[in-house]
Specification:
By secondary structure, the protein is of the alpha+beta class. It is 21% helix and 27% strand.
Length: 325
C-alpha cells in the first residue's frame, strides 16, 4: 500500500515545478515518480513532467513504500538532541549527506535513521523519509526530523510561514562591512557551473532572504565570525548570498573566490540553533547544537576566546536579530 497525498493547484504552471515546491523533491525525482505511474491529475495518470496545470486541478501522488535494497554500512553515529513520538532533533555531523541520490555511494542520514529503526514520515517520498528540511553535506548542526505525516505537514507549514527559526554560525573572508546585512535576491541554478547555485533576476529562480550579523573579527583581521538567519531555505542559500557580496565561507571550495583560499578540513558553516512549535503539544521548542572539534579549534585559533564566548551566547544571537525586517 502507498502513502497518498493530494494537492490543489492555484496557478497555471508546470506539473514538475508545482510538485517540486509542494513535496520538496527535485524535478528529476518528480520525473521518476511519474515514470513509476505514481502521479495523477484529476484522477488521470500523468506521463509527462512538463504538463501544464490549470487552476483548481487536483494532483495526486501515490508515494511508493521503500524497496528492500542491500543496506549500506552505517559507520557513523549522530547526536540526538531531543526525541518523542512526533519529532527527532539531531546534530548532523559535517560530511554526512542527508538523503540518498544516484551520485551518493555512502550511507546517508536517512540510512542512519532506518538503521536505528526510527519511524519516519513518508510525505517527501521514498528517498527522503522524515526529511522536512536539508543541510548540505559539509554543513553540521541542528535538524528536525518528522516521525509521522501529521508532524511533517505541521513542521513544513512552519517553514513556509516563518514560525520555525534557523540560525547558523560561519567564518567568512573578507569581512562584511555592516553590522547587519540583509540580502534578498532570487536564487537559481548557475549557468556556468552545474554544482553551483547563483543569484538571478527577480523574474527567475526562487525568492530567498538571509540576514547576517557580524559577531567578531579575527585577531589578524582577515576573517569574521558571523551569525546567519534564514527566512527561506533555498539550496546553498547562505553561500550564494555571501558570494553575491564577494564573500565566502572558509573551507567552501565550491564558492571560494580563489583556488588559493585557506584550506580547512570542512566548511566552517554550522546550523547553530533551531526553534519550532511542537506538532502535538503546540509548545515552542528551542535547541542548540554544539560545534564539532574541527570548527571549535578553527575558531579558537583565529579569534579572542573571551569575546567568542560572549557573542556565541544564544540569547545574544537571538537578541541581535530582533528586528522588524
Amino acid at each position: 500500500m502507498s502513502d497518498i497525498k493530494s494537492y490543489i493547484c492555484d496557478n497555471s504552471e508546470r506539473l514538475d515545478v508545482f510538485l517540486a515546491e509542494q513535496i520538496g523533491q527535485t524535478r528529476s525525482q518528480i520525473a521518476q515518480l511519474i515514470k513509476q505511474d505514481c502521479v495523477f491529475i484529476d484522477d488521470k495518470k500523468v506521463t509527462r513532467p512538463g504538463v501544464k496545470l490549470k487552476p483548481e486541478q487536483t494532483v495526486r501522488v501515490e508515494f511508493p513504500h521503500a524497496k528492500s535494497e542491500p543496506a549500506l554500512q552505517v559507520d557513523f553515529d549522530i547526536e540526538t538532541l531531543y526525541e518523542d513520538d512526533d519529532v527527532l532533533v539531531i546534530n548532523k555531523p559535517s560530511g554526512v549527506t542527508v538523503h540518498p541520490a544516484p551520485s551518493v555511494k555512502e550511507a546517508t542520514l536517512v540510512d542512519w535513521l532506518k538503521h536505528k529503526g526510527v519511524r519516519l514520515s513518508t510525505i517527501s517520498g521514498e528517498e527522503r523519509h522524515g526529511i522536512v528540511h536539508r543541510l548540505d553535506k559539509g554543513t553540521s548542526g541542528t535538524m528536525v526530523i518528522a516521525k509521522n505525516n501529521v508532524a511533517h505537514e505541521f513542521l513544513s507549514l512552519q517553514l513556509q510561514d516563518k514560525t520555525m527559526g534557523r540560525y547558523y554560525i560561519a567564518v567568512i573572508t573578507p569581512s562584511l562591512k555592516d553590522d547587519i546585512t540583509i540580502i534578498e535576491k532570487n536564487i537559481g541554478r548557475s549557468t556556468h557551473n552545474r554544482l553551483k547555485m547563483a543569484c538571478v533576476e527577480d523574474n527567475k529562480g526562487k525568492t530567498a532572504k538571509t540576514m547576517f550579523k557580524t559577531l567578531a573579527l579575527s585577531t589578524d583581521e582577515q576573517n569574521q565570525l558571523i551569525a546567519c538567519k534564514l527566512f527561506t531555505g533555498r539550496t546553498h542559500q547562505i553561500r550564494v548570498h555571501l558570494e553575491s557580496k564577494n564573500r565566502h565561507i572558509l573551507g567552501d571550495h565550491i564558492y571560494a573566490l580563489s583556488p588559493k583560499v585557506e584550506k580547512s578540513e570542512r566548511i566552517l558553516l554550522h546550523a547553530y540553533m533551531i526553534y519550532f512549535i511542537h506538532p502535538t503539544t503546540k509548545e515552542k521548542l528551542f535547541f542548540t547544537a554544539e560545534l564539532d572539534t574541527v570548527m571549535k579549534e578553527s575558531i579558537a585559533n583565529k579569534f579572542n576566546t573571551e569575546q567568542i564566548n560572549e557573542v556565541m551566547d544564544t540569547d545574544y544571537i537571538l537578541h541581535s536579530f530582533t528586528t522588524d525586517s
